[in-house]
Specification:
The chain is mainly α and about 130 residues long. The protein has seven helices and two strands, in the order H-H-E-E-H-H-H-H-H. Strand 1 (about 20-25) and strand 2 form a beta hairpin. The longest helix is centred in the middle third of the chain and has 16 residues, at about 40-55.
Length: about 130
């Protein structure tokens, strides 16, 4: 049985710091990157620790989990998470977290359009329903 309080508690912080989630920086002769705010660094750490804290969810296999559900990254923004199980929602979080390593600003995009917050609220609802 999973408990996601460590990550869902960040909803309040993300909400408070909505205007300070991050900014794009474009130094001369260097590729642009996102300078994230404190709330996002806390979120990144929390997402990164999900596979270790919840081995029963097999999140190291996040791609397989998403494939089994028929989800691709392009589907994440429109996915209805209201009935998804925790394993799938957590796999989506891990996929975006991993994707940020290869595509600067991916996490920012999902935060700005409210996806991450929606997914965290689903995990919170799952915890409350136990």
């Amino acid at each position: 049985m999973s408990d996601f309080k460590d990550i869902t508690k960040l909803l309040a912080i993300l909400d408070q710091e909505q205007e300070k989630l991050g900014t794009w920086v474009a130094p001369e002769e260097q590729l642009p990157f996102v300078c994230y705010g404190k709330a996002v660094y806390l979120l990144r750490d929390a997402i990164g620790s999900l596979p270790g804290k919840h081995p029963e969810l097999e999140l190291y296999e996040y791609q397989r989990i998403l494939e089994e559900q028929g989800l691709r990254e392009r589907d994440f923004k429109t996915a209805d998470v209201s009935r998804m199980e925790a394993k799938t929602v957590a796999a989506m979080l891990v996929a975006v977290w991993r994707g940020e390593r290869f595509c600067d600003g991916l996490l920012m995009d999902y935060l700005e359009n409210g996806c991450i917050q929606r997914w965290l609220k689903r995990l919170q609802a799952i915890d409350e329903g136990r």
